[in-house]
Each structure stands twice: as C-alpha cells, then as structure tokens.
Amino acid sequence: MLGRLKNIGKEKNLSSLMANVSVAFLGLVSFMLLTRQLDKELFGEWVLFITLATFVDLLRFGLTRTSSVRLLSGADNQKQKTILGATYKINLILLGILTFLCWSILGFFELNGIEVNNGYGLFLLYYPFLALSNLSWNNAMALFQSEQNFRRMMLVRLSNVGLFCLFLVLNQFWLKLGLLEIIWVNILVNAISSVWCSIKYWDGLCYVRQTEKAIEKELVNFGKYSMGTLVSSSLLKSSDTFIIGMSPFLGSAGIAMYAIPLKLTDLLGIPLHSFAMTAYPRMSKKSIEGDLGGVKKIFYSYVGIITLLFFPVALVSFVFAEYMVLFLGGKEYMDSLPLLTLIFRVFTIYIMLLPIDRFTGVLLDSINRPKLNLYKVLVMTFANIVLNILAVFVFKSLVAVAV
Questions:
Q1: What angle do CA 87, 91, 94 make, to 5 degrees?
Q2: Taking CA 306 as the corner, what is the angle to CA 359 and CA 352, rounded to the nearest 5 degrees?
Q3: What pTM value is reported for the model?
Q4: pLDDT tens-place string over residues 5-45
C-alpha cells in the first residue's frame, strides 16, 4: 500500500498536479469574479459560451492530441517535428471547417428570424476568433505531455489564465466592462500564449511543410476514436448546460445556478486529471514494448490509491456543501442556496465513480483499443442526454439534471 502510494507520488505526478492546481486556482478566482461582475442572465450566457467553446476545442484537439502524445512518446527529434507539423496542419483544416459552420449557422438563424439563447449566438459569432487564438498553445500541449514537461505546460497555461484573471481583478474594481469586452480579452490572452509557443517552436507551425501523409493518416485513424471518446465524455457534463440553455423555463439563470456546483465538482476532479496525464504516456510506453503486465500494474496502482484518496474528499464536500457553494457563488445566489447545495451533494456521489471510469478509458487508449473506450462512453452519454431532456422539459428540475 505504502509502496504504491509512493509510486503515485513521484515527481512527475506532483509536477502535473501542481500545474493543474495552479491553473485551476486562477480559473476558480476568475469564476468567482465573473459571478460578481455579471448578473445571473449574463453569467449564464458566458457559461454557455465558454462551455460550448471548451466542448468544440475537445473535438478539434481530440482528433490529434491523444494519438500525437502516443506517437511523440519516445520519438526522436526529427520524428517529433514531423508529428507536430502534421497535428498543426490537421487542426488548421479543422479550424477552417468550424469557422465556416459557425458563421453559416449564425447567418441562417438571422435570415430566418430564429431566436436562440444569446449564449449560442455569442458562440457562433466569436468562437472562430477564440479558436484561432488558442490553436498554437493547445497544439504544444501534446509535446509537453509526451515529454512529461509539466513545468512548461504550467507556464504556458498560466500565461493566458493568469492574464485573464488579472484583467478580471482590474475589471472588478476599476474598468467595469461588460460581457462582450470580457470575451475579447479572453481571445487576446489566448493569442499571447499561442504567439509565445510559435516563437519557441513548440506548436509545430514551422514544421507543417515536413508532414508525411502516413503520419497524418495514423493520427486521424487513431484520433477519430479518441476524439469521439473525448467529445462523448465532455457531453456527459456539458450536455446538461446545453439542454438547460434550450429550456424557456430554466434558461440562462438556470445555467448560472447549475454552473456553481458543477464548477466545484470540476475542481475536485483536478487531481484525477493530473494523474491521468502522467499515467497515459507510461502505460502507452509499456504497451508499445509489449509489457502488458506492466500496464496492468500501473492501472491497478492508480485506480486503487486514487479511489481511496477521493473518499474523504467526497465526504467532506458532502458535509460542508452549503459553505462551499456560498463561497463560490457569492450573495447573488443566497436565495438559491438550498437548491444548489442539494445539487452539489448529488455530485459528491458521482465523484466517487470517477477514478475507475477515467482510468479504464486511459487503459483502453494506451493498449490501442480506442474503439472500445468510445463505445463505453457513447452508452453513458446517450443515457445522460435522454435523461437530461426528461429532467429539463418534463420535470423542469435542476436536481433531476444532476441525478
């Protein structure tokens, strides 16, 4: 037991955890500032915009990141350049397709007078700009993860999350800017991180001409399953927000309220994400070497220890749920405190199931069985969407959505 805990707590795991904790802390501060700078309706529109953006980013980079991390692990310098160039080229093509789709759908809505939640409109108009601004630094993340260089990963992420948080602090006390200005600043800080990665040759932009069709094909063939898995996994949570946003009864205010306990749940999942990032390259390397016994040993170590670590966290969160919700949301949500507390307590039960689910997916990807992982997640996602529709349009209940 102690030996396994020591193995989990190796330097790279701690570096990954520190990187994610640092970024998450600034993200938490930004979230708290936004709940206090925007009223419920506008905050709900922001949440819908950023949730959609995060979801589509997963689609874009899901096609290449998991497969490129797998190929980059152990590759020589020249091969790394070829892989990075190929991933950048694929993501650039995806950006063009998504830009065309977003602006075409927006034009269709406006020409036909179709009214949708303003959060959807903001996404369709501004996402292509955000997607361009975050392309390079997101592409560089695959290189950092394959090299287990979590310090560099942390610095790049802090360069945009930190600057955005600093802007929100200034906005809280002096600037008093609105939602549209906040969106444009978010685009700007992402662009700063991307320019940095391009200048340092981390993103693959300079290697686009060195791509090989065989590498591109391998990335896409593997990535189509991992992308489906990532997108489906994201839909397990984000479909709640999308469906609430379609409801005339709950609307933007419902999104704003639901976002608070959901954000707390995301924070509790940070250690899991950090350990998964370090486990995947290790398990992939063992799999490529043909050491399936080594793969299983890593899998059991992570699942067992992290499940035990999550139990006291979930228990404390259940007991002190009311205080945690109030701290995050502020006085604006005092009237909804009993409802939000109940939603978060439902989520603490969900937290206990996360380790076995996450690492089963990591295991299937690392042994080159992404199709099985995709099928697993698709079943979960389909059930979640169907039940969400019932919860929102039949029961009209945010608690039912959480359940």
A1: 145
A2: 80
A3: 0.82
A4: 455 445 566 666 677 778 888 989 999 999 999 999 999 99
CA–CA dist 158, 225 (Å, integer): 30
| Cβ-proximal residues to 344 (8 Å cutoff; 6+ apart), any chain | 260, 261, 264, 265, 317, 321, 324, 325
Length of the chain: 403
Q: What is the pLDDT of residues 283-307, one digit of tens each?
A: 888 888 888 898 899 999 988 888 8
Cβ-based neighbour number of residue 178 at 10 Å: 12
Helices 40-62, 65-72: crossing angle, 10 deg rounding: 50
Residue carrying the six token digits 């930004």: 30
Burial label, 173 (beta-carbon count in 10 A; 0-12, 13-18, 19+): exposed
User: Helices (H) and strands (E) in the chain — how many of each?
Assistant: 17, 0
Task: Enumerate residues 6+ apart whose C-beta is below 8 A from 247.
Answer: 254, 392, 393, 396
**What amino acid is encoded at 100 in this protein?**
F
Cα–Cα dist 341/240, whole Å: 17
Contact 144, 72 (CB under 8 A): no
Query: Do the beta carbons of residue 194 and residue 203 sit within 8 Å?
Result: yes
Q: State how far the Cα of 41 lies from the Cα of 256, in Å rounded to an integer.
A: 7
Q: How far is it, in rounded angstroms, from Cα 400 to Cα 73?
A: 43
Say how far apart CA 234 and CA 255 lie, in whole Å: 16
